[in-house]
Design brief:
Elements (H helix, E strand, L loop, with lengths): L1 E6 L4 H5 L13 H13 L5 E6 L3 H14 L3 E3 L17 H15 L13 H20 L6 E6 L1 H11 L7 H4 L7 E7 L3 E8 L22
Parallel strand pairs: 1-4, 2-3, 2-4
Antiparallel strand pairs: 1-5, 5-6
Length: 223
Amino acid sequence: MRLLLIRHGQTPGNVLGQLDTAHPGPGLTELGERQAEALSRVLANERIASLYASTLIRTQITAAPLSRVHGLEIEVLQGIHEIEAGSLEKMTDHESHKRYMGTIFSWADGDLDRRMPDGPSGRDFFERYDAAMAKIAGRENGSGNSGSVAVVSHGAAIRVWAGMRAGNIGPDFAIKHALDNTGIVALDGDPDSGWELIHWDDSPVGGLALADPTAEDPTGRLA
């Protein structure tokens, strides 16, 4: 199964540098909407069999143009939402950013018992994200579809999950590789046989003209 993990378009929280993980979350900025449209154009010729988005509305808005181009329904899937910031929610200062990303990167190093302040542990996160991927794989493997599966999710969640689950990269890969808004991580495989990283496009789909170097995005390029 080819899995396309796509980070949502830019949000107001990304611009402000907020740790913004609560439901339902914000929509997209004007740039984020342009990023979503660019995503649908770039992937117009990709054979996409199914399209999923998280329970946070920014992913659903990002997926909408792709849904329209491919004539697919967006399935809102539990478990692929962003890693909850706990007591760091809405924080914008650099120390909070470091604590949030440092906790996540400790999971990538194998310390799955470490918890976000008043938030989830690494085991909590991987349990719910793995369950969501298993649900997708169970559906797709029994459907006869041969196209890719597009999953619009979140920066920190994609980075640490793909970094840990792809067997052909080292544990520090996700630490060293950022993921900008509408960046795509592509993997082949399934939960039973394992996953292999095919490519990691850390820039916005559609090119750097759709990047925002002034944004204080804590789970993107600052991490």
